[in-house]
Amino acid sequence: MLPVLENLALDLADNGILVITLNRPSKLNALNAATIDEIGRAVQTALDNPQVRGIILTGAGDKAFVAGADIAELAALDELQARRAAERGQEVFCMIEESTKPVIAAVNGFALGGGCELAMACHFRVASDNARFGQPEVNLGLIPGYGGTQRLTRLIGKGKALELMMTADIIKADEALRLGLVNHVVPQAELLGFCQQLLGRILTKAPLAVGLVIDSVNAYFDKERHGYQTEANAFARCFASDDFREGTQAFLEKRPATFTGK
């Protein structure tokens, strides 16, 4: 039986495809701590449920997959709380990445900050033609904290990943496809159907072999997670900075930030 969750909608079809929908459209599906915990609970439920054979992760509405983290919640954290938040986000997103059941991100609209990180944790991504991707955390005096520095580099290479994270540029779906950040771009009206068909093809294959493909590809990368710990520590250090306080305050006050490098 699927749990009833406040910030997610779960829909399990007869063919074993579970659609997990981030369901905070009034907040553009922004990630707060409660939503990250619910994602973890939903994914664990899917892994434990033999009726679930594959997962599609998407966002409610036509504007955003996930527009980012909940900035008001982040602004209230201290350094220790920030490290714990980063480690919890990494833990949940690694659960997705290491799932032996295939997980596809159906990215509709904005996938920024934590939303881009969530999409990258999935095994691959299909974008609507109005999708937008970016890691704009430096605008807030922050860095990606849920695995973004690691996964973006793996997916598109060091040079371009550094450029996107340091400039905070937001790229369109066609550029994301060119860079290898997404696998397909389709019209928004066709997004979910395309993902269901694609996942349906995968589900005709041997489940054990599919799971072992996922595990073997993940094994190519360093699984000691030193990079993730480095990221979590750096994410936490940002919270002790004046730049973070200025960046988040400016965001909440809808004004340009003035950074001092402190």
Q: What does this 3D model show about the protein?
A:
The structure is a single chain. The protein is 47% helix and 16% strand. The protein is an alpha/beta fold. The chain folds into two domains: 8-203, 2-enoyl-CoA Hydratase, Chain A, domain 1 (Alpha-Beta Complex), CATH 3.90.226.10; 206-253. The strands form two sheets. It has a six-stranded mixed β-sheet with strand order 1-2-3-5-7-10, sandwiched between helices. It has a four-stranded mixed β-sheet with strand order 4-6-8-9. A hairpin with a 4-residue loop joins β1 and β2 (17-22). The longest helix is centred in the middle third of the chain and has 19 residues, at 79-97. The termini are far apart. The mean pLDDT is 94.
Number of folding domains? Answer: 2
The CATH class designation of the largest domain is Alpha Beta
Order of helices and strands: EEHEEHHEEHEEHHEHEHHHH
Strands across the major sheet, in which order?
1-2-3-5-7-10
Q: What is the tally of helical segments?
A: 11
Unreliable segments of 5+ consecutive residues: none
Mean pLDDT: 94
Overall strand count: 10
CATH architecture of the largest domain: Alpha-Beta Complex
Shape: globular
In percent, how much strand structure appears in the residues? 15-25%
Largest sheet: 6 strands, mixed
| N- to C-terminal distance | 50 Å
The CATH topology label of the largest domain is 2-enoyl-CoA Hydratase, Chain A, domain 1
Helix content: 40-55%
Structural class: alpha/beta
Q: Could you tell me the radius of gyration in angstroms? A: 18 Å
